[in-house]
Amino acid sequence: MIQFNCGGSLSTTTKWTIKNCTSTRCAFEIILNEKVMTTYSELYIPSRTLAYGVYQLTLTVTMIDSPNLKSSSSAYVRITATGITANLVQLGTSMITRGDQQDLLFDPGTFSVDPDEDIFDATKWKYTYYCRIYDLYNFPNVQGILLSIDDSRIDPYNPSCLSNRSGLIFGNLTLSPNSSLTVLGGSLQLNQMYQFMVYMENRKNSSIQATGYVLVTVEVTHPQLIAVGCVISSMCVPNLEFQLLNPTTQVALFTVCIGTCTNLESIKWNIYQGSENSTSSNSTQWTLFNQTSSYENIWFFGTNTSNFTATDLLFLNNLQISLWRFEVVYTFLSPMIGIGIMVELFSLVPSIFIVQFFRRIRPRRQISPLRQALEKIRSLPHTNSKDKTIIKNKKQQFTFPWWCLFIAYTFSFMIIAVSIFFIIVKGIIFGDLKTQQWLTSVLTGFFSSIILTQPIKILGLAVFFTLFCRNPNDDKEAKEYIDETNFELDGDEDYLHSNDFSLISNSSKRITRLNENEVAFLREQRLKDTQMWSITREFMIYAIFLILLCNQYSQPITGIPAAIHQHYIN
């Protein structure tokens, strides 16, 4: 019988060594950073640790009790340059929305990414830009050679995005020529989608190239630029105009609002599924995924936040769909209405001051000397304690003489003149676009004042003064028109009842009849009033119709240009 008798230990040690190889041999051992663990059976080397070249990686296993017993195995690895990611906008966002009067900035020299370097060096590359009207035409070309966006040649079958090349501004012409491109506002058509492409070529090695894409939707509004990126960038691999994802992993996205993003009301994510367009092989037809709400917090998380996650269940349960689009929509409160309301609130104090100034100006009264003497004689012998109280209360009211009316009107016109002066000055400083926005906010503030602000101020002040400042036994406005000391009737008044009874009823009413001329005059005035009301009503009907027509015309109607184009082609 054979028995195995081994009293020694079978423990081993492992050691990784890395050597740089030349064309003939691998003799130069590389000393790695101490953070790289070389004593495990697995070796992990962080990115940008090894320079470009060929390396020999050797794993040696040695017996602890018998150091002479060892074994090794090698593998050869070539380190090459990683392809750059060409980004036209921040975070490599593939689709954005801009206003027709907003400048459109593409800056691949700043936003592109080189995984092998900490900072992208824009001076090492050449930049060429292309543009096409998406979903309708291909990129303009002549015999298969693409025409750049600034090329004056014309492709009759694929028109250019711009009818006038003066709306293009290339930046960084000294250090890195054409590394940025600005398309001025007004150069692109409304309610149209454009696809921009940048082709980048290495200056030293023309075989190293990169291409970046972005879709731009042009609207009549002035939206902010929203950038979308992957939380883990290595899980989103750029592939032309798309990004490759592993269907067995989740996708985590985040958004950043570029610029002034105040008055944010809501954030909403939309998911679309894509298919090849039947009319064109160079565009994708997107359909809204209608089960988003059903699978919220199951497949989708954070649909109303800036961080969105879609689990792998979305892809695994829809394997027939290979193209997905994730869109985020930011909704902002209208700044025009906010500015209008703020302007009205700031003007509340001067408005109240001017109104009170006008209200406290006494009317101009011209009383004859005889009437003044009679009133003075009548009031002297009959002044009792109650009359003194009434006179005292009337004396407490603070009023201005009638000639202050000229001062009030002068003050009002001065405010108007100062406002016009500031509009002119600020218009010169701000420029046309900001001046239009400012005047729009003024008009919006005017209408919001009529519809919203002024009614709220009137109701609020009425409730405040009624509850806290008004004495129910002292009605000042009524006393302005009612004189409790005067019991005589006016010329057009009669007593309804009398204490004197008589069998003969003699009417004491004084009847004033109109003559023929006065009746004709009143009839003519009434006819004019009726005609004026008819004209006003007709004007209002036409105004409402015009507003509805303008509103319908201003709404973005997508699909009609494509439908018309398809109709004429067929």
Topology:
Blueprint: E1 12-21, E2 26-29, E3 53-63, E4 70-79, E5 95-99, E6 104-106, H1 108-111, E7 125-133, E8 141-142, E9 145-146, E10 168-171, E11 180-183, E12 192-202, E13 209-219, E14 225-230, E15 237-239, E16 242-244, E17 251-258, E18 264-276, E19 284-288, E20 300-301, E21 307-310, H2 313-316, E22 323-332, H3 335-346, H4 348-359, H5 369-379, H6 385-396, H7 404-430, H8 432-469, H9 476-481, H10 516-554, H11 560-569
Parallel strand pairs: 5-13
Antiparallel strand pairs: 1-2, 1-3, 3-4, 6-11, 7-12, 8-9, 10-11, 12-13, 14-17, 15-16, 17-21, 18-19, 18-22, 20-21
Helix pairs in contact: 3-8, 7-8
Shape: elongated
Q: Characterize the largest beta sheet: strand count, sense, and whether it forms a barrel.
A: 4 strands, antiparallel
Q: Uncertain regions: pLDDT < 50 for 5+ in a row? A: none
Strand order, main sheet: write it out: 2-1-3-4
Q: How much helical structure, as a percent, in the residues? A: 25-40%
**Average pLDDT number:** 78
What's the short story on this structure?
This protein has 570 residues and is of the alpha+beta class. Helices cover 31% and strands 25% of the residues. It folds into three domains: 68 residues, no CATH class; 245 residues, no CATH class; 109 residues, no CATH class.
Structure write-up:
This is PKD/REJ-like domain-containing protein. GO terms for molecular function: calcium channel activity. It holds the Pfam family REJ. With 570 residues, the chain is of the alpha+beta class. The protein folds into three domains: 68 residues, no CATH class; 245 residues, no CATH class; 109 residues, no CATH class. It is 31% helix and 25% strand. The protein has eleven helices and 22 strands. A four-stranded antiparallel sheet has the order 2-1-3-4, with no helix packed on it. It has a four-stranded mixed sheet with strand order 5-13-12-7, with no helix packed on it. The longest helix has 39 residues. The radius of gyration is 42 Å and the shape is elongated.
